[in-house]
Write a structure and sequence with these properties.
The complex is a heterodimer of chains A (about 170) and B (about 150).
Chain A lengths: L1 H15 L8 H11 L10 H20 L3 H16 L3 H17 L1 H10 L4 H10 L11 H15 L2 H12 L5
Chain B lengths: L4 E7 L4 E7 L2 E9 L8 E10 L11 E5 L4 E3 L4 E3 L3 E4 L10 E3 L1 H10 L8 E7 L10 H4 L7
Parallel strand pairs in B: 1-10, 8-9
Antiparallel strand pairs in B: 1-2, 2-3, 3-9, 4-5, 4-10, 5-8, 6-7
């Protein structure tokens, strides 16, 4: 009886305690398979897989915009994988979306990068790419760098900060 | 209307010409690409589709595009991509590996292809080869001073 009460209490406690959503196992598997150059096993054919990668991007981006810190990190990982695999369509989506996201949430992005220095080259490349993406004028890159350099230097280790600022100033495929 | 379609891309130095003929539609239009990610010349199976993460389609939906399929080699075979498209754009800044051309022309091509989401397009990418005269004669290269 006591055991039953404890189990009930634990279940109620878990049910009412906010828990981070975590990474969906199927999304995680799809990202790993994509990084390894394998056909994503959750999709039946290449066309479905292409659309599936776009849907994965959209899910993580939407959740990151809603404030989910794990989704932000997963979205940045999708960016890393897209750059690594030259997945041009999604890279172009990041080039359009990541700079505005960074402008709105610089501390969240830098926190993710501080914990994952290996994400810095691809992420900062995509941020830097945003200044001229789709014919945008490059006029505010200098002002952005002036404003963000102290923050990036404060939040990232020196080597990561330097690498990030270099990529934002003059993006080159990592 | 045809059951299968052909798109030909002839690349020159920094831009190229995309050609598409289908019924009364006859398109020959300037196109561009990202010089850092250049797909290899070759023949690919294309699909008329939409790009999932771009919401600026000419018809108000997601961006219309032609997907070039799985394992498209790029940069002289140093890698293979599953995400190369032909889509709208006005210069190389619209591309991170895709081939881009004027939105109205992409829409014209895309609209005339039926059904969508099928590998019913043959996309041929070629590079212009320029022959600059003939190789120099043996006597002109190594023995230039022999006669005088």
């Amino acid at each position: 009886m006591i055991l039953k009460r404890c189990a009930l209490g634990l279940a109620l406690a878990l049910g009412t305690t906010p828990v981070a959503a975590g990474v969906d196992p199927l999304d995680a598997q799809e990202i790993v398979e994509t990084l390894l150059g394998l056909d994503p096993s959750r999709h039946a054919d290449p066309l479905t897989a292409m659309h599936g990668w776009g849907a994965l991007y959209a899910r993580q981006y939407a959740a990151a915009q809603a404030g989910d810190p794990i989704a932000l990190r997963t979205w940045l990982l999708v960016g890393f994988a897209s750059v690594a695999r030259a997945n041009a369509g999604p890279v172009e989506a990041f080039s359009g979306d990541l700079l505005p996201y960074y402008r709105a949430h610089p501390l969240k992005v830098l926190a993710a990068l501080a914990d994952n220095g290996w994400l810095v080259p691809a992420t900062c490349f995509l941020v830097g790419n945003g200044f001229t993406h789709e014919g945008r004028s490059d006029v505010d890159r200098t002002a952005f760098l002036a404003e963000e350099t102290p923050r990036i230097n404060a939040k990232l280790p020196p080597a990561s900060a330097r690498a990030c600022l270099d990529q934002i100033a003059a993006p080159r495929l990592p | 209307m045809a059951d299968t379609y052909s798109i030909d891309i002839l690349r020159k130095n920094k831009s190229g010409i995309l050609t598409f003929v289908n019924g009364t539609i006859n398109i020959s239009e300037t196109c561009w690409w990202d010089p850092e990610v250049v797909i290899d010349a070759g023949t690919y199976t294309g699909y008329a589709t939409r790009m999932a993460n771009k919401t600026d389609g000419t018809d108000g939906g997601k961006r219309e595009a032609i997907w070039l399929g799985k394992d498209v080699p790029y940069n002289s075979g140093t890698g293979k991509s599953n995400g190369i498209f032909i889509h709208k754009g006005t210069d190389p800044s619209w591309s991170d590996g895709c081939i881009v051309l004027a939105a109205a022309k992409v829409y014209q091509v895309w609209s005339s292809i039926h059904p969508k989401e099928k590998g019913n397009i043959t996309v041929t990418v070629r590079d212009e080869t320029v022959q600059r005269g003939r190789a120099l004669d043996w006597s002109c290269t190594d023995h230039r001073g022999a006669w005088g």
